[in-house]
Amino acid sequence: MRLTKLKQSGVALILTIGMLGQANAQITHRDNRGNPFTDLKRLSVSRQIAIQNLTVLTDAVGVEFCKERYGNGYTVYPDPNGRRGQFVSDKGHKFSLYARSELRGDGIYAEHSQVLITFPNDPDEEVENTQFITGFVNSKIFTGVFSDGICSGRFSVVGAK
What we know:
2 helices; alpha+beta; single chain
């Protein structure tokens, strides 16, 4: 009798795991692409982004390349001529969000975003950027890390007026 019960539990577990799919597919919210940096519902239309701890991931370039690309920060706001999920910065960056997932639990907010960025010093090249953002639910300040395969760093996001 114990063996029959064990088999039934094993079948139920296998069916449950088989139906789940990919982990990120369960939390992806493609219908809310309003903000590549944090939850749109809690911040103003524009966001102040502060960049820190820039690091080079390859020997092909120096840290000056990353500093020229990202600087020390900028203000980001929706592109007035773009679609939903497209943003521009006050320094000439262009952002296009193409994948986003978020998770909220126990008062913590976490987001994973993938963004194509065009930099002011190289407007003909789009660079893929991966970001991970965390903060507290109902907070207006978030922090995160990013990488484009060449440069990585940390950033902070706050509401801008």
